[in-house]
């Protein structure tokens, strides 16, 4: 029956003789590192109230250099006792790594399909209970707003929606398969006038919305009438099906 080995850093199985030699080398390296640390004479840092910015900067640079020297001495001692082990993959050269950076291109993919970006605050003209026209070709004639997404609210205040807001609505008139169900919808037009950043006040001749899914993709394939610019900037899938943007 063979002797069970132990697993070293490279993942190879060793017999007891080699494993004991590795433990012996590790103990020698540990003693060498502790002796190096004891030999370093670190001055006691002065009180922060009595130091200047330059003194604190010099002390920080000195501590960083001491840390790098200790790391290099430790690596050299380990290489002398065990040259076969690839310690560079185990210990990093830089003891003070920089935080990871994220590219904007990778993070921008999260908003595809749904709402992208933010919109300015406008006048909200469609409270809960409002009935608006359905401007797509799904077969629904109107939409009854029952809630507004993203509204926290306060006591006795009705949640209200404006152009570009997502609401939960039911179909009051339309195909039987769409009625008596709750659908997400996006408001594309409102009769209540609202102000844009350039000072223009804008309003439409009717209140209208389109049925979407939770990802912001339209259930239908066409939109009747114009779509507000605030809604088109926020929902790219709706803008692609819009006949005109006002």
From TrEMBL:
CDD domains: Ribosomal_uL14. Keywords: Ribonucleoprotein, Ribosomal protein. It holds the Pfam family Ribosomal_L14. This is Large ribosomal subunit protein uL14. One of its GO terms (cellular component) is cytosolic large ribosomal subunit. It comes from the Eukaryota. The keyword Ribonucleoprotein applies. It comes from Pleuronectes platessa (European plaice). The keyword Transferase does not apply.
């Amino acid at each position: 029956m063979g002797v069970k080995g132990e697993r070293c850093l490279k993942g190879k199985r060793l017999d007891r003789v080699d494993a004991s030699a590795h433990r012996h080398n590790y103990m020698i390296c540990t003693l060498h590192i502790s002796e190096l640390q004891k030999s370093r004479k670190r001055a006691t840092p002065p009180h922060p109230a009595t130091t200047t910015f330059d003194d604190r900067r010099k002390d920080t640079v000195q501590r960083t250099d001491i840390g790098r020297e200790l790391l290099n001495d430790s690596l050299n001692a380990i290489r002398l006792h065990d040259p076969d082990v690839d310690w560079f993959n185990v210990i990093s050269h830089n003891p003070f790594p920089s935080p990871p950076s994220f590219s904007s291109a990778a993070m921008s993919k999260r908003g595809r399909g749904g709402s992208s970006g933010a919109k300015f605050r406008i006048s909200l003209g469609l409270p809960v209970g409002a009935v608006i026209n359905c401007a797509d070709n799904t077969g629904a004639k109107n939409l009854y707003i029952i809630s507004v997404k993203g509204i926290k609210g306060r006591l006795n205040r009705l949640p209200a929606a404006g152009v570009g807001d997502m609401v939960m609505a039911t179909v009051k008139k339309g195909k039987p398969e769409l009625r008596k169900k709750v659908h997400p919808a996006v408001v594309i037009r409102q009769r209540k006038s609202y102000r844009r950043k350039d000072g223009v006040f804008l309003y439409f001749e009717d209140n209208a919305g389109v049925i979407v899914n939770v990802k912001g993709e339209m259930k239908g394939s066409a939109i009747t009438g114009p779509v507000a610019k605030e809604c088109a900037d926020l929902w790219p899938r709706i803008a692609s099906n819009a006949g005109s943007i006002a």
